[in-house]
Amino acid sequence: MNCARCGRQNFVDAHRCAHCGHHFFDGSDVVNLLDKAQKRTWLRPRNIAIFLAAWALLVVEIVTYAGKAPSSPQGWAALILLGPIVYVVLATCADTIFRKP
Fold it and tell me: Which residues cross the membrane (predicted)?
């Protein structure tokens, strides 16, 4: 968890920031975390479009590499489930890289 006052991840212990000395659990941090969680929703049109585009590209790449569409139910299930898994991994990496302090 980042410090609500300075935004850094410097810990002296579990309750105090090493950089500014702010106490994490004074009540205001819980409110700030809830506000941030409500503002960050994944179900926005842009994110849905990115998910569908990434999944379509993944399906095209797999079918192109294999030379044919899956012929078994297990193959179709794997193809359908790979989209969300890859999207969550890529979205988590992108969120970590582009996170604003």
Answer: 48-66, 78-98
3-state percent helix, strand, coil for the chain, nearest multiple of 5: 60, 5, 40
Using one digit for the tens of pLDDT, what is the confidence trace for 62-82? 888 888 888 888 988 888 888
Below-70 pLDDT ranges, the chain: 1-2, 4-5, 8-16, 19, 21-43, 100-101
Distance of CA 40 to the CA centre of its chain: 10
- On the CB side of 59, CA atoms within 13 Å amount to 17
Determine the pLDDT at residue 12.
54
CB atoms under 10 Å from CB of 51, counted, come to 19
Encoded tokens for 40: 């960050």
Q: Hey, what are 100's tokens?
A: 């604003």
Inter-residue contact 16 to 23 (CB < 8 Å): yes
Q: Please give the pLDDT value at position 54.
A: 82
Return the structure tokens found at 39. Answer: 């503002």
